[in-house]
Structure prediction request, 134 residues.
Amino acid sequence: TNVSRVTLKTLISHYEKPRNVGSLPKNDVDVGTGLVGAPACGDVMKLQIRVDENGIISDVKFKTFGCGSAIASSSYMTERVKGLSLEEAGKIKNTGNCTGTLHCSMLAEDAIRSAIRDYKSKRNNMTNPKQKGF
Ligand code: FES
Ligand code: FES
Prediction:
């Protein structure tokens, strides 16, 4: 499956030095934006993907007001989804290994799904028949 064990060392490294923090231009037709909130703690996460003409995720950026765990798992997630197809990326499971009730590490998983949905609905709304059905 797509689930791989994340070591604590890996997560700490992402916490100390988050990768792919930032934004992509939200109005670009090849960019999908996911914005999700964590009901338990009220934190917010924005995650964006850029998709190339082959349906592969070529770039990922995120921003969050979440805690350190949310930052680490999102950063780790951005590295994992780069180079994957939308289908593969949508199957990635919770990247953290915390069993706490706030589900911080679920934010990244929700956000990537939301970004994929946004990208797909953008493509579906496009009127140019050549680009449609991508
Ligand atoms: Fe809110 Fe972790 S406490 S994301
Ligand atoms: Fe937030 Fe575990 S670190 S619930």
About this structure: The longest strand covers residues 43-51. Residues 19 and 79 are 7 Å apart (CA to CA). The pocket of FE2/S2 (inorganic) cluster (ligand 2) is lined by residues 67, 69, 98, 100, 102-104 (CB under 6 Å). Strands lie at 31-38, 43-51, 57-64.
